Amino acid sequence: MPVIEVTNLHKRYGDLVAVADVSFTVEAGEIFGVLGPNGAGKTTTVECAAGLRVPDGGGVSVLGLDPRRDAAQLRQRVGVQLQESQLPDQLRVSEALELYASFYRDPADPADLIDRLGLGDKRNTAYKKLSGGQKQRLSIALALVGNPSVAILDELTTGLDPQSRRDTWALIEQIRHSGVTIVLVTHFMEEAERLCDRVAVIDRGRVVALDSPAGLVSTVLPEQRVRFRPSAPVDDRLFTDLPEVTAVQRTGSQVVVTGTGDVLHAVTSVLARTQIIVADLRLEQSTLDDAFVELTGHRPAE
Amino acid sequence: MHAFGQILKIETRLFLRDFGSPLTTVALPLALLLVFGLIPAGRQPEAQFGDLSFIQYFAPSLLVITLAMSAVNILPTVLATYRERGVLRRLATTPASPAALLAAQLVLSLATILVSAVLLIGVGRLAFDVPLPRRPLGFTLALVLGTAALLALGLLVAAVARTAKSAQALAVPLFMAVMFFGGVYVPRFLLPDFLVRIGDYTPPGVQALLDAWTGTSPHPLHLGIMAVVAVAAGATAAKLFRWE
What we know:
Chain B: It is found in: Cell membrane; Membrane. Chain B: The chain crosses the membrane at residues 21-42, 54-79, 100-127, 139-160, 167-186, 221-241. The complex is a heterodimer. By secondary structure, chain A is α/β, with parallel strands linked by helices. Chain A contains eleven helices and 13 strands. Chain A is elongated, with a radius of gyration of 23 Å. By secondary structure, chain B is an all-alpha fold. In chain B, strand 1 (45-46) and strand 2 (52-53) form a beta hairpin. The two termini of chain B are 23 Å apart. The chains are: A alpha/beta, B mainly alpha. The interface between A and B is medium-sized, with 26 and 21 residues.
């Protein structure tokens, strides 16, 4: 049974349609990414799943529960880290975790969680004095302190420096290993590519793609380029005869073979058969970033 | 209930940790009482105060400082800040309700006001022979209704203001009006009569507190106005208040 089931979700604010028609399911134990340009309806979608907003149409079921009707039960089992949500300046790390732990029936040990999230030497530090990365880790800790089955994390690493971002990613992988299903809202394609098992790309309130990051790239932009420098002159036809190959170009001593499917294997087989040694062999694939632009016509915001 | 207790404990700690809050709500009125009380002339009955000493006449205004600070300054600023920073929204995702945080803030305001009232009355009595409120029931009623009216106005500010900054912008003029008409900036005997009359009906109703403290029953109309303000502002605040 899926952990989260969103069916034809529709939500508007006055005349503005925030979510037109969104459907997806999230399976137990996966990291599911919700991607999309700003204003695409990502946050509204997960807010409906978290029970913070009432959908105008369609259905949401989380752990088999209705986020509105079974709100009390669900809040015990779903941890949420919201976009741009802060804490009082003078609140200390350990106080925040102990306070939030007191809300749950079966909380994690706050001291243990503080250590796991690398905030051990900051337990008595006031929120105001934490760095951006530390604030973010505390925020994740608060979403996890209730020992949730599902964690919804919105714009996890926005505003973090590259090192803190990588540290946070490692943390998310560690949380998944502990068995928590994670829904990750992000507009960083690198983040989605690195962490997510599957992603839904939402644009203008609709799901425009739903696949694994690699699957999505190979569907949207199937072309790959194999680039190399041959040791001896080669004839273009050697490659153009291959069914996987769509084009061959030369720049200086470099040969660039463009194709789809297992084009790398096809090219290297031919080279081996003809006993041509190559230097600087590189495979260039499209990234999720490229696929995102192709799908939505937007540059992912940085 | 457990969550509410924990929230109250943490909010109390934050209140005490923010040095300015206990200082302005409790320490400042008490310090002023001590300063005026230590001036010998402040303890002599004067005809212009209706045969009361100056500190006796001024004590209710000192209580107004606590009431104004706590109810129309600190309360709306804290609530608007919590909403602006998403503290209330985050609580809404947990099994605890943001309403528990609102309730904790109200309890904290009431406790501050109670502590300050007890200190002003107690220290006044022990150190400067200011009599205890002569109409304890009337005084309690005037204090409760005055507090309710100001807290309701504070909540109304918190409901209307979208950010901490706009809460301040609304709270400061209100706070200054309450302080002025409560006779804090200029003792009321120096004000023209019509300003004194306005002050009688301005929350928290300093005249009703003075009357009950020094001997006569508070005027029913003074109390009635406080009740009306409390209900009207409270109902409007409840209608307009948003958690995010």
